[in-house]
Amino acid sequence: MTLPRFSPDNDPGPDFAALIDRFGIPAISNHEIIGKLPHGTTCVAIKYSDGVVLAGDRRATSGHHISFRAMEKVFQSDSHSGVAISGAAGPAIEMVKLFQLQLEHYEKVEGKSLSLEGKANQLGLMIRQNLPAAMQGLAVVPIFAGYDLRENDGRIFQYDVTGGRFEEASFATTGSGSLHATTVIKMGYEDQLARNDAVTLAANAIFEASDEDSATGGPDLIRDVFPTITTIDVNGYEEVNHDSVVATFMEIIETRTARNGGA
């Protein structure tokens, strides 16, 4: 087999995709490949009187296809902080694992944990390092939240794809359903919320996002899969137990049903 020859006016140059297309070889574009990869969707963080609530739905989508119905999107990063992920699922989970490892390594080497501000900066740097992949469609946009033991207060940090870090005073949302979740939280948020009220507000936000956004998963009563809800306060990171989460969402469903006249 000999290499093809091209005249100067017919040379495809460095465009390999154009070359194989000319020879009738079907090619799959990067956009088609990336569109088929699992992506995480909606996560929220809400500050309350004693700390922060961090929550996320469980659905991962590949375009219009549901890839996973029970994906975990909320992770404990250390004893007093957590990360909720949205974006390309694979890179996001790997980023969280590396972030957890770095925090643990720092604590072992230095004999003390990194400050919450330092943890937020470190995560921002990791997002910035992912920018080349983000430009190709593999963006990772997490929310970082924790309890600052130095300031005795819960804090929330939001990011953009360039690694830009922004601290939010009250709440933050990310993912495809973030617009709807934000609206719900704005309507229900009050300063110095009690823990249970913040948990209920987070559940309402995800429920409404799932009702309006096809990529966001709500409570799945058939499979017994419900969004993940966690709290972080002076006592540390704690996941709200499954029975409590189920009870919260069932109350929301009953309220919506009664509001619609039982229909």
Task: Describe it.
The chain has 263 residues and is an alpha+beta fold. It has a single domain (39-259), classed as Glutamine Phosphoribosylpyrophosphate, subunit 1, domain 1. It is 38% helix and 24% strand. The chain is built from eight helices and 14 strands. The chain has helices at residues 16-22, 30-35, 89-110, 116-129, 131-135, 178-188, 195-212, 242-259; strands at 39-40, 43-48, 51-56, 60-62, 65-68, 74-78, 81-84, 87-88, 143-148, 153-159, 165-168, 171-174, 228-233, 236-239. The strands form three sheets. Strands 12-2-3-13-14 form a five-stranded antiparallel β-sheet, covered by helices on one side. A five-stranded antiparallel β-sheet has the order 6-7-9-10-11. The protein has a four-stranded antiparallel β-sheet with strand order 5-4-1-8. A hairpin with a 5-residue loop joins strand 10 (153-159) and strand 11. The protein is globular. It starts with 15 loop residues before the first helix and ends with a helix. The relative contact order is 0.17. The mean pLDDT is 90.
Short summary:
It is built from 8 helices and 14 strands.
Kindly provide the radius of gyration, computed on alpha-carbon positions and rounded to a whole number of angstroms: 22 Å
Helix count from the secondary structure assignment: 8
Mean pLDDT: 90
What general form does the structure show? globular
| Approximate strand percentage | 15-25%
- Class by alpha and beta content: alpha+beta
Low-confidence runs (pLDDT<50, min 5 residues)? none
Q: What is the CATH superfamily label?
A: Aminohydrolase, N-terminal nucleophile (Ntn) domain
Q: How helical, in percent, are the residues?
A: 25-40%
SSE string: HHEEEEEEEEHHHEEEEHHEEH
CATH class designation: Alpha Beta
